[in-house]
Amino acid sequence: MRVAVAAGIMYAAPAAGATLVEWSSEESAERFSRAEHKVDFFPLSNHFVGQDNRIYCGPASSAIVLNALRLGKREGLPQDRSAIDTEDMAWLPVGFDPFLGKYTPNNVLTEGTKTVAEVLGKPIEIAGEWKKDFGLQLRQLAQALRVHGLSVTMRVVNDGAEPELLRDELADNLATADNYVLINYSRKALGQSGGGHISPLGAYDRESDSFLVMDVNPNRAPWVWVKAADLIAAMQTFDTVENRGYLLISEGQ
Known about the structure:
Layout: E1 3-6, E2 9-12, E3 20-22, H1 26-34, H2 41-46, H3 57-70, H4 116-119, E4 124-126, E5 129-131, H5 138-147, E6 150-156, H6 163-174, E7 179-186, E8 196-205, E9 210-213, E10 224-227, H7 228-235, E11 245-251
Antiparallel strand pairs: 1-2, 3-10, 4-5, 6-11, 7-8, 7-11, 8-9, 9-10
């Protein structure tokens, strides 16, 4: 597999036949400019955070969507107090709390979700056996978002799925405000290195029939435009207990 170098970062290049267009390219700028389905892009990019470890694509993607829906719109959001050591807090004025209420990859996993230890490999029961299950499967991701009160529609992309219907549903979501898409797909199916991955979709360009995947792991791959057929095929791959797919997410009623 060839390796492409961009801004000093090493990226695994797409395999032959894959159609990936990097966000920083001229072609990408043209697609984004003419795209009519890109309402989601702006709040997602405003609240975008990348992974800081190899496993947290699900928590990072969840934090982006939760902040896009809620930050600045409601009070009482959780605080991630892990960034400043307790002993360093002693230098602040008495009674001053520097932490802001917002979702981060470190606080989206809570009671009722898969635990941090389980995401990192602590065995869970799967089909009557105790097994390591790294990261978040599609249903586990849906549960993590529902625990926070969001409305989540899950689409498992099974072998009999109709690609045109899936493409149209995804595109419609990207043209409608205040609801978002998270996809669970196989990197290998797109010619990238790695295994299963989760990221938000940001836009759809009808002329090229491609979606913008806002990859939350910039250490491994840039944001890319992916042909609709290729993206659906990458979701139509088997995970631990069933095929991958996508979530349609909005504020709960």
